[in-house]
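#struct-pred

JT: dropping the chains for the assembly here, can someone run the whole complex?
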Amino acid sequence: EPEVTQTPSHQVTQMGQEVILRCVPISNHLYFYWYRQILGQKVEFLVSFYNNEISEKSEIFDDQFSVERPDGSNFTLKIRSTKLEDSAMYFCASSNTGGGYGYTFGSGTRLTVV
Amino acid sequence: KQEVTQIPAALSVPEGENLVLNCSFTDSAIYNLQWFRQDPGKGLTSLLLIQSSQREQTSGRLNASLDKSSGRSTLYIAASQPGDSATYLCAVSSWDNYGQNFVFGPGTRLSVLP
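RK: done, full complex below.
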């Protein structure tokens, strides 16, 4: 069964450093998403991406965050200057249609900022 | 702003029992509602999606109902098994983004004891 692949599974970084979280969505999917889950808290929407541009972003997705689809297969989330409160599990998801159908999540990247 | 709550927060049942998980949302103008399963260290798996015009969806031992007017959904699990142990998340989407992005509840952590 097709999977959304995220790398690395765990990343530790120092406060103030830049990190790039990588995702390989399912190949025929057109919609891409990032969510995060701070330990013990709800899963929160960050950003959605379609047709090579951001279609929606949440209040959390401020100027320190950016997303990119650098080639035909990868979808990345960059955090420019990490803060302690950025420590969370980051989930990538993709879907082949809008409307929430066929939503497939990756296993997540646990980001720890020290 | 949409808020999603789930009760109970945790549930422990013996194998074979039927059980009901509850979800409530504050804004009834939803596009759809989706139930996910989250296993430790893994991503989220979509279980059932109910469109706003639908009343219920079934998949195997799972049945999800939706009462949009009262802002409630239930997930019914029949003949529970130890393999059902996981956290179950309810999520709703809105017409603003044509159902693409989800607001999640905090989840119900289910333990099915052999």
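JT: nice. The CA atoms of residues 34 and 62 of chain B lie 13 Å apart. The first strand of chain B starts at residue 4 and ends at 7.
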